[in-house]
């Protein structure tokens, strides 16, 4: 068993140890469907209850994905047993995605059953892989499994009981799972997991999360293309198409231009890489994902009804999405660099000022305004970064002149 486990682990010192493997990309495919389902569900249930239910579903999808990413950060997807595990998770993920739209109706048990099987089954597989080979990871996943089994009871019970009790039990279940990493998966008699116990490949985690962000951004492109295909070709349609594309491109720019690579470096050099990875990737990416999904919903609203009075749901999505997105990037960049980007604070302030404008602007105009605020944010970040770099180079030049 020890030899089997050793054969399934990633080689930490290999040159390509942190590369994302094709089986992981295959696993990601099912989340394209999941994000589409979540976006559609939110668009058709855009009220307090619908938002709460859809948010809970999204949190569950993110959690099953990020937990799998943690496992493949330690186990090698090119090894046959690990690859088969990912294939099994992909099939279960397909069932999970098919149940998203009716997770609080007749497909509640399918959603809960698929989710629980993915979470607990993957954890048991990792437990087997580490047994007799890696004591730290084995102890860690023993605690993880106990927490997931505890939440699984609530997931299944909620699906069986239905109604408002289902929502309450599922909130409790997801609450347990989200509290677990922050609590170090503490179990009486088994201790807790410490950040310095986790050997994390930062570049792998960063690339995996970046790929998930791209999946979400792809959803906005799909929504735009699907909706525009039924619209007449006229100047307003071109304006909407341009604004939708630029909004997606600007979110890509703000996320990837600075912070993504820095986050990977932070994990690799941190004194407690597990703690840093937990903050940056496990938790701080959640608002990024929520914001992009909400942005896709806002685009669907404004593309469907571009003129006339701006409804509250349209305004809340158009302004709320970039605000949440910038807050998520502030969290990531603050954790990775130790600083809060002033450009993002400028963008957030402008979005606050845009709130009263939603009362007088038509949907398409508010859409353009929100995109313009993202453009200002991106431009300010480039300016501040160049100024900081020039200042750093100036100090280095002065130091060299002084030594000379």
Quick synopsis:
The chain has 15 helices and no strands. With 404 residues, the protein is an all-alpha fold. It starts with a helix and ends with a helix.
Highlighted features:
single chain, 404 residues, mainly alpha, 0% strand, globular, disordered N terminus
Describe this structure in words.
The protein is built from 15 helices and no strands. The model is unreliable at 1-5 (pLDDT under 50). The protein has helices at residues 2-8, 22-44, 48-74, 80-98, 108-130, 135-161, 163-182, 202-228, 235-257, 260-269, 273-283, 286-304, 312-337, 342-354, 363-403. The longest helix is centred in the C-terminal third of the chain and has 41 residues, at 363-403. The protein starts with a helix and ends with a helix. The protein is globular and about 65 Å long. It has 2 domains: 2-193, no CATH class; 203-395, no CATH class. α2 crosses α8 and α8 (202-228) packs antiparallel against α10. Helices cover 78% and strands 0% of the residues. By secondary structure, it is mostly helical. Pfam families: LtrA (PF06772). It comes from Xaviernesmea rhizosphaerae. InterPro entries: Low_temperature_requirement_A.
């Amino acid at each position: 068993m020890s030899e089997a486990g050793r054969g399934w682990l990633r080689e930490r010192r290999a040159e390509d140890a942190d590369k994302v493997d094709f089986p992981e990309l295959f696993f990601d495919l099912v989340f394209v469907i999941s994000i589409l389902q979540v976006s559609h569900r939110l668009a058709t249930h855009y009220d307090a209850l619908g938002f709460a239910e859809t948010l809970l579903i999204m949190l569950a999808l993110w959690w099953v994905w990020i937990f799998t990413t943690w496992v493949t950060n330690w186990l090698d997807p090119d090894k046959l047993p690990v690859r088969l595990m990912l294939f099994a998770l992909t099939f279960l993920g397909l069932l999970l995605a098919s149940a998203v739209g009716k997770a609080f109706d007749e497909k509640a048990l399918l959603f809960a059953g698929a989710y629980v099987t993915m979470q607990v089954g993957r954890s048991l597989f990792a437990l087997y892989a580490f047994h007799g080979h890696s004591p730290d990871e084995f102890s860690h996943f023993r605690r993880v499994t106990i927490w997931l089994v505890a939440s699984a009871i609530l997931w299944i019970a909620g699906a069986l009981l239905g109604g408002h009790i289902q929502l309450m039990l599922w909130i409790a279940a997801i609450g347990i799972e989200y509290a677990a990493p922050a609590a170090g998966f503490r179990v009486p008699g088994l201790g807790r997991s410490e950040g310095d116990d986790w050997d994390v490949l930062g570049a792998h985690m960063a690339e995996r999360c970046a790929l998930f962000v791209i999946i979400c951004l792809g959803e906005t492109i799909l929504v735009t293309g699907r909706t525009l295909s039924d619209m007449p070709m006229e100047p307003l349609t071109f304006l909407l198409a341009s604004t939708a594309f630029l909004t997606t491109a600007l979110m890509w720019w703000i996320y990837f231009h600075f912070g993504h690579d820095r986050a990977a470096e932070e994990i690799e050099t941190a004194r407690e890489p597990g703690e840093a990875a937990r903050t940056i990737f496990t938790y701080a990416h959640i608002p990024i994902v929520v914001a992009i999904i909400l942005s896709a919903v806002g685009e669907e609203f404004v593309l469907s009804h571009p003129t006339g009075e701006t409804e509250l749901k349209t305004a809340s999505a158009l302004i709320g999405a970039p605000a949440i997105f910038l807050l998520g990037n502030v969290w990531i960049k603050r954790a990775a660099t130790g600083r809060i980007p002033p450009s993002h604070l400028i963008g957030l302030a402008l979005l606050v000022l845009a709130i009263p404008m939603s009362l007088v602007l038509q949907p398409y105009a508010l859409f353009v305004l929100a995109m313009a605020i993202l453009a200002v944010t991106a431009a300010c970040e480039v300016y501040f970064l160049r100024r900081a770099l020039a200042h750093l180079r100036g100090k280095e030049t002065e130091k060299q002149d002084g030594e000379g």
